[in-house]
Design brief:
178 residues, 10% helix
């Protein structure tokens, strides 16, 4: 839990320092619906005895409805990410999470060439061990996130997918919004 608090505080601090002038702009250029395809990397939130954490993959797609008179979007995200570790005796361990989340973001300076956002997703995550001992669980998943949309299309995101302890991870992704 301490790592989650430190990561959340760090993400908030980075967000606040990256956006000193937060103001709403004309959002007439904002599409009513947008779709995002993203790819990135993950890192486990916690350690397991006799393991060392490694960088893992993440993929995702989102469908977002941009509310016309509010700087908010709501939608859904389908996500696949892994918490990858190297075990001293068993080799690689990969704990994959496949999640379907309802998401919402608050957008600062929506419609401008640089539009930061902060949001959260909640839903269900299917947790599976891909490499190592086989086990499967379906759990509640929460995903706080922040990032920015650049030039109306490039979406950079820092997020954390929090499910079962050994499956939870932080990630960074780049996506294309169309």
């Amino acid at each position: 839990m301490k790592k989650v608090s430190i990561i959340a505080a760090t993400m908030g601090l980075l967000f606040c320092t990256a956006c000193p002038a937060i103001a709403q702009s004309d959002d007439s250029s904002v599409k009513k619906f947008s779709f995002v395809a993203k790819v990135g990397a993950t890192y486990p939130l916690d350690g397991i005895d006799e393991t060392s954490s490694k960088i893992g993959p993440q993929l995702g797609i989102e469908a977002l409805w941009n509310l016309r008179h509010l700087p908010i979007d709501i939608g859904a995200e389908l996500y696949i990410g892994s918490a990858v570790r190297d075990h001293e005796t068993k080799g690689d361990l990969s704990n994959r999470t496949i999640s379907l989340l309802a998401v919402s973001d608050y957008n600062f300076s929506r419609g401008s060439k640089f539009s930061p956002f902060i949001g959260v997703g909640m839903g269900v995550g299917r947790c599976e061990v891909v490499i190592g001992d086989k086990e499967k669980h379906t759990r509640f998943c929460v995903a706080p996130r922040l990032g920015f949309l650049a030039f109306h299309h490039l979406r950079f995101t820092l997020d954390a997918h929090i499910t079962k302890k050994t499956y939870s991870h932080v990630g960074a992704s780049v996506g294309y919004s169309f």
